[in-house]
């Protein structure tokens, strides 16, 4: 069956995604999501990001065998919110694009 994006997840992905090459909307990060970044560990942070993205790439490949409309995943924010697996991918993509734009901006400033 062809994947059908959900209304709320589509709106959420659009909300998170950078617009016109910049992050327009600020979103506060919950304490449990704030990474601890000691000085001089930028390379470790980048390597951790790359490692997680490789894991996601493998999960995307595996998802080809799964019904993206029926399989549900919990939100990382709260288990009370669930998304279709197919909806989780655009949200994750928008979230990561946001981080990349923020990192580029931080590099320009420093």
Task: Provide a descriptive summary of the structure in words.
It contains 3 helices and 2 strands; from the N terminus they run ααββα. The chain is mostly helical and 110 residues long. The model has no long low-confidence stretch (mean pLDDT 85). The longest helix has 25 residues, at 85-109. The termini are far apart. α1 runs parallel beside α3. A two-stranded antiparallel sheet has the order 1-2. A hairpin with a 7-residue loop joins β1 (72-74) and β2 (82-84). The radius of gyration is 16 Å and the shape is globular. It is 52% helix and 5% strand.
Order of helices and strands: HHEEH
Rg is: 16 Å
Question: What is the β-strand count?
Answer: 2
Sum up the overall morphology in one term: globular
The fraction of residues in strands falls at 5-15%
Question: What percent of the residues sit in helical stretches (DSSP H or I)?
Answer: 40-55%
Query: Roughly how many Å apart are the termini?
Result: 49 Å
**Biggest beta-sheet profile:** 2 strands, antiparallel
- Structural class, by secondary structure, is mainly alpha
Strand order of the largest sheet: 1-2
- Kindly state the mean pLDDT as a whole number? 85
Note poorly predicted spans.
Answer: none
Number of helical regions: 3
């Amino acid at each position: 069956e062809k994947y059908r994006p959900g209304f709320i997840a589509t709106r959420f992905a659009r909300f998170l995604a950078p617009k016109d090459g910049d992050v327009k909307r600020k979103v506060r990060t919950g304490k449990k999501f704030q990474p601890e970044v000691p000085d001089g560990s930028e390379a470790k942070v980048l390597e951790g990001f790359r490692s997680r993205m490789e894991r996601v790439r493998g999960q995307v490949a595996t998802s080809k065998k799964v019904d993206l409309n029926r399989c549900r995943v919990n939100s990382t924010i709260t288990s009370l919110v669930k998304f279709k697996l197919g909806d989780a991918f655009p949200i994750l993509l928008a979230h990561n694009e946001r981080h990349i734009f923020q990192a580029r901006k931080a590099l320009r400033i420093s």
